[in-house]
Automatic annotation (TrEMBL):
SUPFAM superfamilies: MFS general substrate transporter
A Pfam family reported for this protein in Swiss-Prot or TrEMBL: MFS_2
Any one GO biological process: carbohydrate transport
Keyword Nucleotide-binding recorded: no
Keyword Transmembrane: yes
PANTHER family: MAJOR FACILITATOR SUPERFAMILY (MFS) PROFILE DOMAIN-CONTAINING PROTEIN, MAJOR FACILITATOR SUPERFAMILY DOMAIN-CONTAINING PROTEIN
Gene Ontology CC entries for this record: plasma membrane
Protein name per the record: Sugar (Glycoside-pentoside-Hexuronide) transporter
TM region positions: 41-60, 66-85, 106-124, 136-159, 179-199, 205-227, 258-281, 293-312, 324-344, 350-375, 396-418, 430-452
Key words, A-Z: Membrane, Transmembrane, Transmembrane helix
Coiled coil ranges: none
Length: 476
């Protein structure tokens, strides 16, 4: 009976493969529409946690009475530990063995911890001493970001490599993930304050909203688990992974030139993202003279985001992921360069800023694809497949980039003698704001393009996959 069941499943898999066909590179497709949707909603818990953690400073200082300096120190310390837990999680994924595979089981195992971690962020003991509040905040932020978030993001990122070898399918996965991630992130950033205020604006209101988001995140994570498979993992590869020590796998990362390029790109991309997300209020208040303009810029900024998500799919299909990213970056570089000559123009900031936003959408949507494709390159070049470590390393680079970007905001403002209590800032402070909002983003985009220009893996990827399949046939 068991043999017959296995035969039926095998025949069904063959039938599905025949229906899906192959992509433009001749690689067998493995995914249907429901698989993309199921995979995409897995981004919801990640962006929900990230978005809520981003609002915690306001919650801690204004809702539970914690000192801003203590909150900043907590986030700095957690960020340091957080980056290193990524590396450990990558190794854990590579060593995981279960009936569900290497990465997929972690999505199931994290369903309940996700629910708890989001709610616990906002249940700070209201009547406790400041030291107890600080300790509680440190532990719950650490649990949510360094443990739960990491235990989701590394397996989830690895799943793209384990799910399919098709660049076309990986591209669709990346776009779908980016859309769901942007939607939940937008909801958290735009609706959180008004909704909590509608519910009373106190700690209880924040806990209610957090509970709703926690339930949504857990359900989405479970749906991703149900609709996922690990198509490219074989017994021989699992055996191969077990033979790779942590030290060796770490060395293999830096022997993979395309991985090195991508970790640098992700490092810089996250710096740009933090600068764009955190400095707009300074620009509208002190450069344009009206902080309320940030609402208009945010609303207009939705247009290039929507256009970007619509355009990135067809562009990727026609040009490939790397070339699509490079083409979009050129637009962003040109727009940013023009802004350098008209830094005080509101129309310039509105229009050219929208073009720059559009230019970053392909990189945001396809960075996971470009990183995942380095798994096959590393396997082809070194004979070792280290999916978890590759994803943990790039996540590490991204988090360090975010941390450094946030730190640079404070450093550059301090260097310019910025004083938030002054209605009129000195010239040095104005210059520091222009550096953060206009000049530095231009330089970073230019450097990202130069690095992406050296990323030519798209040209070699089809042949690499064919050779890996030939090796697999010989070994079997």
């Amino acid at each position: 009976m068991k043999v017959n069941l296995l035969e039926e499943k095998s025949q069904q898999a063959i039938q599905d493969s025949n229906e899906l066909g192959i992509d433009a590179n001749g690689v067998q497709k493995t995914m249907m529409k429901r698989h993309y949707l199921g995979d995409g909603v897995g981004q919801v818990p990640l962006n929900a946690i990230a978005g809520l953690v981003g609002m915690l400073t306001y919650f801690y200082t204004d809702k539970v009475g914690m000192a801003a300096g203590a909150v900043g120190t907590i986030f700095l310390l957690v960020r340091i530990f957080d980056a290193f837990t990524d590396i450990a999680m990558g190794r854990i994924v590579d060593k995981t063995k279960s009936k569900y595979g290497k990465a997929r089981p972690w999505l199931l195992w994290m369903v309940i911890p996700t629910l708890l971690s989001i709610i616990l962020l906002f249940t700070v003991p209201a009547n406790a001493s400041l030291s107890v509040k600080n300790l509680y905040a440190a532990l719950t932020v650490f649990f949510a970001t360094a443990i739960v978030y990491t235990a989701i993001v590394i397996p989830y990122g690895s799943l793209m490599a384990l799910r399919t070898r098709s660049v076309e399918e990986r591209g669709k996965m990346g776009i779908t993930r980016a859309v769901f991630g942007y939607l939940i992130g937008f909801i958290v950033s735009v609706a959180l304050i008004p909704v909590t205020n509608l519910l009373g604006g106190d700690q209880r209101a924040w806990i209610i909203v957090a509970t709703v988001l926690a339930i949504l995140s857990s359900v989405c994570l479970y749906l991703t688990f149900l609709t996922s498979k690990e198509e490219t993992t074989t017994a021989s590869k699992e055996k191969l992974d077990e033979q790779v020590t942590f030290k060796e796998s770490f060395k293999l990362l830096f022997k993979n030139k395309y991985w090195c390029l991508m970790i640098t790109v992700l490092f810089l991309m996250n710096m740009v993202s933090v600068l764009n997300a955190s400095t707009g209020i300074y620009y509208t208040k002190y450069i344009l003279g009206n902080e309320n303009l940030i609402g208009i810029m945010g609303a207009v900024g939705l247009i290039p985001v929507v256009v970007g998500f619509v355009a990135v799919g067809p562009m990727t299909k026609k040009y490939g992921p790397a070339k699509t990213v490079r083409m979009a970056l050129i637009l962003g570089i040109v727009a940013s360069l023009i802004r350098c000559f008209i830094p005080y123009s509101f129309i310039g900031a509105l229009v050219l800023g929208a073009v720059t936003t559009f230019s970053m959408i392909p990189l945001m949507a396809l960075s996971g694809v470009l990183t995942t494709n380095t798994v096959e390159y590393g396997e082809w070049k070194n004979g070792k497949r280290i999916v978890g470590m590759i994803n943990s390393g790039t996540s590490f680079g991204g988090k360090i980039g975010s941390g450094l970007g946030a730190a640079m905001i404070g450093w550059i403002l301090a260097f310019g003698q910025y004083d938030g209590t002054l209605a009129l800032q000195p010239d040095s402070s104005i210059l520091s704001i222009l550096i953060l909002t206009v000049y530095l983003p231009f330089v970073l985009l230019l450097v990202i393009y130069v690095i992406m220009y050296k990323y030519d893996l798209d040209l070699h990827y089809p042949q690499i996959v064919k050779e890996l399949e030939m090796r697999k046939s010989v070994n079997s």
